[in-house]
TrEMBL record:
This is Phosphoribosylglycinamide formyltransferase. The active site is at H108 (proton donor). The chain holds residues 22 to 224 of 243 of the full protein. The keyword Acyltransferase does not apply. GO terms for cellular component: cytosol. Its EC number is 2.1.2.2. Residues 2-180 form the Formyl transferase N-terminal domain. The gene is purN. It comes from the Bacteria.
């Protein structure tokens, strides 16, 4: 089973997926990593692991649609069974989302449906929530709104800052993302438009 990972930055989630793959725990192979930011550290992580690393700078395209068209071409060249968004900081066009509907996952740093969008940790802190976390979800046209496959919680403590909370949540991201990818590649997690099942149980 073939996986393409899209990133924009550090790629710590990508690293967790690479580590899982190296322990035969991913259920498939990462065949390419694509970044819209040519300097993303994650591209180096990919190269170090011997994975095809592709920079596709969105700035070189006139429109979101032109960029997404180029991205579709690069992705399809690698014939993936699954596309994994791992800190990919571009909003994708409906054309793109629908092309890969049912085989694209994202990880979001909140307990969805709470705190879609950006600065999730700062907003959770200022609301004084006791519990925060992260979610792996299917990507649909609704931003951060596709069915949630897997979540992990962290307790928010009084001394937490945006940075400390982010670090705690990211440690959980690195645990749950490889599990969700594996479940998908094994056919246990199935994504169908606006619904998802694990072992036949609707989520
Ligand atoms: C993660 O916190 C993820 O939840 C969000 O973007 C961040 C990416 O971090 N979507 P990294 O590039 O995987 O280190």
């Amino acid at each position: 089973r073939r996986v393409v990972v899209l990133i924009s930055g550090s790629g710590s989630n990508l690293q967790a997926l690479i580590d899982a793959q190296e322990h035969d725990a991913l259920g498939g192979e990462i065949v390419a990593v694509i970044s819209n930011q040519p300097n993303a550290y994650g591209l180096k992580r990919a190269r170090d692991a011997g994975i095809d690393a592709v920079a596709l700078p969105h700035r070189e395209y006139d429109s979101r649609d032109a960029f997404d068209g180029a991205l579709i071409k690069v992705i399809e060249r690698h014939e993936p069974d699954l596309i994994v968004l791992a800190g990919f900081m571009r909003i994708l066009t409906p054309r793109f989302v629908n092309r890969f509907l049912g085989r694209m996952l994202n990880i979001h740093p909140s307990l969805l449906p709470d705190y879609t969008g950006l600065r999730t940790h700062a907003r959770a802190l200022s609301d004084g929530v006791a519990v925060h976390g992260c979610s792996v979800h299917s990507v649909t046209e609704k931003l951060d709104g596709g069915p949630v496959a897997l979540q992990a919680e962290v307790a928010v403590t009084e001394d937490d800052t945006e940075d400390s909370l982010q670090a705690k949540v990211q440690a959980r991201e690195h645990l749950i993302y490889p599990i969700a990818v594996r479940w998908f590649l094994e056919g246990r997690l199935q994504l169908k438009g606006d619904t998802a099942t694990i072992d036949g149980v609707a989520l």
